[in-house]
């Protein structure tokens, strides 16, 4: 294709790319925030059931990331796009499977409930991966500009935040008399799935692939790709930080709902706890482009994650009482604890794209999907570890999934565990991005010009 006939990179691409994560996050965040609550409070599974179900399904999820990433790099099924045809296939899948996950199957036998949960979630993970892996790799071929990739990462975070805005509204809708309602959850799943499909359709129409768009499929050397991945020091650094962020932040969101439901005894106000975690993200989205231009991505994340770590230590030891005053202290603390993670989430995709560019410069091989799939493997595995670990810890704290009321000691333990998770996560992000990740501001400029 003649380069001059390709539309220049601009706002259409940025908005389209944002629509992609907006659509993905409607399904993903609904499952991350409510699937555990739905199957334990509405369907009748125990936290023990959930712990092993999520581990098994996430191991499968992580493996299918690598398989699909290799497939996308090896088999081109579209004439005009390397990645969009796979996204199209996955889009149909998540519509059907998100609805099936939240189907009202409480009348099934216990064994059938477990099978339904495990099979529907494993199939959903395949459909989601068919979208997410090529969507992530798409980042690297929309533009070869480092500043452009940072902009795309910011817009992707905006899309994800918009998806979460819808999730924030759900406590007012899905809880009835402080109890999660089965029918309402099923209706929400239908609406969110259809909206996700529409948003992904517009993403495919608005985004243009510009880098290496005429490349032919190549035979993938998975062992070689794996070696390239683990000898890419900055990619290892961002992977460690990502694992910490996903395990301690993304995978524990349902604990926040439990804190409002059982500690503050007001489940509907859980939307406040979710909303405040996005206040830092909204604030820094506006400033990220200007700040990274002056400091570089590495320094930016190091400073903000250190702030989040210090805030986490403070919140862990503050007297958060189960009343309005305590709720205000807790919510305010969450804002500051989430500063580092918010900044990391905003620009992590630009960092991954930089690492993929570094891999290409070193090897001369275009393996965007395979590299991204291995990175996604660790994200998915982390989700399973985080959710399973949370279930085990809740069980150890005395959490009774079949009770509408928990003891005060159990409710307080849930609160303290959640804060500890956030603190550990932001500390590891700080250490990894400060001492392992080594692409400084100068190196970012070199990557943009393609120099070693």
Written overview of the protein:
This protein is 78% helix and 1% strand. The protein contains 17 helices and two strands. It has helices spanning 11-43, 47-74, 84-101, 110-142, 146-168, 170-174, 182-206, 222-230, 233-248, 253-263, 270-277, 279-295, 297-317, 324-363, 368-396, 408-435, 441-449, and strands spanning 175-176, 179-180. α10 packs antiparallel against α11 (270-277).
Keywords, please?
452 residues, mainly alpha, Growth Hormone, Chain: A, 17 helices, 2 strands, globular
Number of domains: 1
Q: Provide the helix percentage.
A: over 70%
CATH C-level category: Mainly Alpha
The largest sheet has its strands arranged as: 1-2
Unreliable segments (pLDDT under 50, ≥5 consecutive)?
none
Give a quick account of the main beta sheet: strands, pairing sense, barrel closure: 2 strands, antiparallel
Instruction: Round the mean pLDDT to the nearest integer and report it.
Output: 87
Radius of gyration: 21 Å
Strand % is under 5%
User: What would CATH call the architecture?
Assistant: Up-down Bundle
CATH topology: Growth Hormone, Chain: A
Distance between the termini: 28 Å
Count of DSSP H/I helices: 17
CATH superfamily: MFS general substrate transporter like domains
Order of helical and strand elements: HHHHHHEEHHHHHHHHHHH
Q: Based on CA inertia axes, which overall geometry fits? A: globular
Class by SSE composition: mainly alpha
Count of beta strands: 2
């Amino acid at each position: 294709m003649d380069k001059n006939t390709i539309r220049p990179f601009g706002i259409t691409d940025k908005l389209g790319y944002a629509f992609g994560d907006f659509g993905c996050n409607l399904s993903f965040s609904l499952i991350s925030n409510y699937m555990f609550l739905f199957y334990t409070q509405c369907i009748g599974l125990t936290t023990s059931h959930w712990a092993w179900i999520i581990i098994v399904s996430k191991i499968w999820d992580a493996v299918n990331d690598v398989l699909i990433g290799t497939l996308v790099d090896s088999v081109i099924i579209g004439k005009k796009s390397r990645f969009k045809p796979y996204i199209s296939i996955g889009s149909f899948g998540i519509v059907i499977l998100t609805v099936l996950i939240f189907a009202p199957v409480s009348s099934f036998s216990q064994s059938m409930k477990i099978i339904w949960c495990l099979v529907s979630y494993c199939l959903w993970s395949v459909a989601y991966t068919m979208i997410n892996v090529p969507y992530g790799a798409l980042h690297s071929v929309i533009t070869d500009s480092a500043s452009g990739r940072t902009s795309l990462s910011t817009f992707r975070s905006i899309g994800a935040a918009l998806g979460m805005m819808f999730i924030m509204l759900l406590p007012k809708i899905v809880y009835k008399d402080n109890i999660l309602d089965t029918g309402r959850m099923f209706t929400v799943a239908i609406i969110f799935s259809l909206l996700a499909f529409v948003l992904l359709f517009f993403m495919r129409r608005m985004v243009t692939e510009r880098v290496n768009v005429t490349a032919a499929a190549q035979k993938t050397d998975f062992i070689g790709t794996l070696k390239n991945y683990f000898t890419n020091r900055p990619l290892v650094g961002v992977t460690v930080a990502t694992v910490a962020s996903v395990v301690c932040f993304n995978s524990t969101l349902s604990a926040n709902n439990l804190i409002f439901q059982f500690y503050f005894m007001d489940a509907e106000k859980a939307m406040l706890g979710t909303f405040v975690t996005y206040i830092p993200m909204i604030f820094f989205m506006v400033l990220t482009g200007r700040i990274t231009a002056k400091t570089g991505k590495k320094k930016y994340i190091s400073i903000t994650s250190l702030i989040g770590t210090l805030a986490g230590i403070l919140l862990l030891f503050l007297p958060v009482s189960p009343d309005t005053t305590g709720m205000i202290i807790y919510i305010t603390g969450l804002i500051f604890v989430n500063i580092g993670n918010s900044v990391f989430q905003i620009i992590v995709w630009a960092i991954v794209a930089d690492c993929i560019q570094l891999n290409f410069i070193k090897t001369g091989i275009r393996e965007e999907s395979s590299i991204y799939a291995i990175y996604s493997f660790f994200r998915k595995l982390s989700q399973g570890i985080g959710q399973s670990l949370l279930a085990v810890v809740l069980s150890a704290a005395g959490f009774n999934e079949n009770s509408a009321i928990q003891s005060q000691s159990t409710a307080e333990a849930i609160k303290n565990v959640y804060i500890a998770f956030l603190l550990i996560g932001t500390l590891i992000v700080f250490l990894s991005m400060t001492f392992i990740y080594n692409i400084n501001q100068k190196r970012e400029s070199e990557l943009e010009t393609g120099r070693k």
